[in-house]
């Protein structure tokens, strides 16, 4: 359904983004921020799914500043490779990859109001974007690794946020989710009986029920704030 295009950030850096167009006039746009596995077949299918719901979907390559052409699977070796790349991106001088998300949001803005959704590390970047990226109207992080740490919890979102977590996520302790909820009563938090990565149908941790419920809630949330 979609294709890759090149976007250019404010510092002149050019990077690829997967773009899926809706069939008719867009009802808005959604920036889809990938996991630590790159804009792979799963993330492209997620973007296609938002396009099928009427949104212009844009998924930027968040690894391109450290390594181009990353598309990983979900093996242990892929996990280690993705984690190393994520660490390299996080070590970039600021604003680093956030300016690439800004460029993606600005491109998406041609379709109307823009929401952002991200998974795993993309969930953390989505939470950061809610506090720092201009031009957003809503943000939905899924199991954002690290976003419930004190440093990240201290951020103040500038747009409405809905957050999805799993109560069996060994990367995100349940007590840290509860602390995050207390610190951010304005954030709509949903916790599912599932582990990390429950939305990804290519992972062993996939939970079809949790994924379907979270998607329904996310679409309703975007419908409310991007309409």
Describe this structure in words.
- The chain is an alpha/beta fold and 227 residues long.
- It has one domain (3-226): Alpha/Beta hydrolase fold, catalytic domain (Rossmann fold), CATH 3.40.50.
- It is 37% helix and 20% strand.
- It has seven helices and eight strands.
- It has helices at 41-52, 76-90, 98-108, 121-132, 150-153, 174-183, 208-226, and strands at 3-8, 14-20, 29-33, 56-60, 114-119, 136-142, 162-166, 188-192.
- The strands form two sheets. Strands 1-2-4-3-5-6 form a six-stranded mixed sheet, with helices on both faces.
- The longest helix is centred in the last third of the chain and has 19 residues, at 208-226.
- It is globular.
- The mean pLDDT is 97.
- Computed over alpha carbons, the radius of gyration is 16 Å
Mean pLDDT: 97
Q: What CATH architecture do you see? A: 3-Layer(aba) Sandwich
The top-level CATH class is: Alpha Beta
User: What is the strand arrangement across the widest sheet?
Assistant: 1-2-4-3-5-6
- Count up the domains: 1
Distance between the first and last residues' Cα: 23 Å
How many strand elements? 8
What is the makeup of the main sheet?
6 strands, mixed
CATH topology-level name:
Rossmann fold
Shape: globular
> Which class do the helix and strand fractions yield?
alpha/beta
Specify the number of helices. Answer: 7
Could you name the CATH homologous superfamily? Alpha/Beta hydrolase fold, catalytic domain
Helicity range of the residues?
25-40%
Low-confidence stretches: none
Into which percentage range does the β-strand content fall? 15-25%
User: What is the string of helix and strand elements?
Assistant: EEEHEHHEHEHEHEH
